[in-house]
Amino acid sequence: MSEPDIRPYRLAVPDQAVADLRERLRRTRWPDDYVDHDWDFGTDQTYLKALCAYWADGYDWRARETKLNAWPHFTTSIDGHQIHFIHVKSTSSKAQPLLVTHGWPGSFVEMLKIIPMLTEPQRFGGDANDAFDVVVPSLPGFGLSGRPMQAGTNPRVIAGLFAKLMQRLGHRTFCAQGGDFGASVTVWLARDHGDKLTGFHLNMMPSSLRPAPEALAAKPPSDAEKKLLADGADFMEREGGYSHIQRTKPQTLGFGLNDSPAGLASWIVEKFRSWSDCDGNVESVFSRDELLDNISLYWFTQTITSSVRLYRESARMPLKIDAGERIAPPLGFARFPKELVRPPREWPERFFNLVHWTDMPRGGHFAAMEQPELLAEDIRKFFRPLRG
Predict the structure, then answer these.
(1) Deepest in the core among 8, 11, 168, 276, taking most CB within 10 A?
(2) 36 is known as an active-site residue
């Protein structure tokens, strides 16, 4: 591996960009609102105004940038894609390589709490023998990775890029974990590059995962599986407006979100509130600084449009499992109670070699950020018997 293959990276947002953000926030043109409106029509304006006022005049980007730069960041070019990743090595000689992939509207920021729990578990009441060397890439089009300028970069392609990334880092085989789009990428890894995976762990089942019609005919869905499909349809009816526009007209949406920081914050924070186990109070789970670290990353890198294009790309390459097909690497699954849709155990058993299942006591869609201890413990437990 030659020196230019992998390069250290440091986040450095120009002063002018920080000043421009603050000026835009102060000049936000707010829409009217129903007097009795809370969050039922969308983002609550009272909350958003307070968040944006803090973003403009209280949030210290330079301090947060310094904190983010304390992590070991790198970039590399693979098949024409500029890939950013954090790579944290354990002090344990028994550490296994682990690829952790985020989703939307998250970023590598979503995974920061969980990294030390995986690299140095003994510091958190765990066993040093369960340690991992952790690699957290930014999805193409997200944050510090490059923005694809041509169509075709879907979760299957990304899985291939990440498999090459792990090989470039010297890992012939590795472990993998993901939720949201990270789950889709991880399933594609297991399907297309299963010989490279020790096993894989998910905290969400990809919504596009479907058996072929003949497979359903051969084994009709159980009552629990029928409920899963009905719950998915209900979710799309109640909450799926974002998904429909992002998988059909992402570019139209992007013009507004890329130009208005208040609009961007509204679009993202509403998901963190709706999809987390927070009982309606988003800041009971995430601090304002944590929320704004993630939102600021989208803003300063201008990647909200390229990130939502992944919905369109994913719709063009759905996860259809052929009749009789089974994905071989061992799967561990953690089912969180406030996840968007919760599959019954028989659903992943249709497709995967499911060897580990945990019903979590609390937590939602952003598991690594909401309940890092629970998720880290489950990852360690699942991979423990798979270690060489």
Answers:
(1) 276
(2) no
Q: What is the pLDDT of residues 67-105, one digit of tens each?
A: 999 999 999 999 999 999 999 999 999 999 999 999 999
Q: Contact, 91 vs 123, CB < 8 A?
A: no
Those residues whose C-beta lies under 8 Å from the C-beta of residue 192, and which sit 6 or more positions away, are: 156, 159, 160, 163
Torsion of CA 173, 178, 183, 185, to 10 degrees: -50
**From residue 207, how far is each of 185, 233, 323, 373 by CA, in Å?**
12, 11, 18, 25
Question: Quick check: is 311 catalytic?
Answer: yes
Model confidence at 217, pLDDT cuts 50, 70, 90, reads confident
Whether residue 222 has pLDDT greater than 60 = yes
Cα–Cα distance for residue pair 290/288, rounded to 1 Å: 5
Out of 44, 133, 180, 277, which one is annotated catalytic?
180
In the chain the domains, ranked by start, together with CATH numbers, are: 41-386 (3.40.50.1820)
Q: Is the pTM of this model over 0.90?
A: yes
User: Residues in the chain, how many?
Assistant: 388
Residue 217, by phi and psi: left (phi above 0), alpha (psi -120 to 50) or beta? alpha
34 is catalytic: no
Neighbours of 76 (CB within 10 A): 21
How many percent of the chain have pLDDT more than 70? Answer: 99
Yes or no: say if 175 and 197 are a contact pair by the CB < 8 Å rule: yes
Q: DSSP state, 11? A: -
C-alpha 364/C-alpha 384 separation (Å) is 24
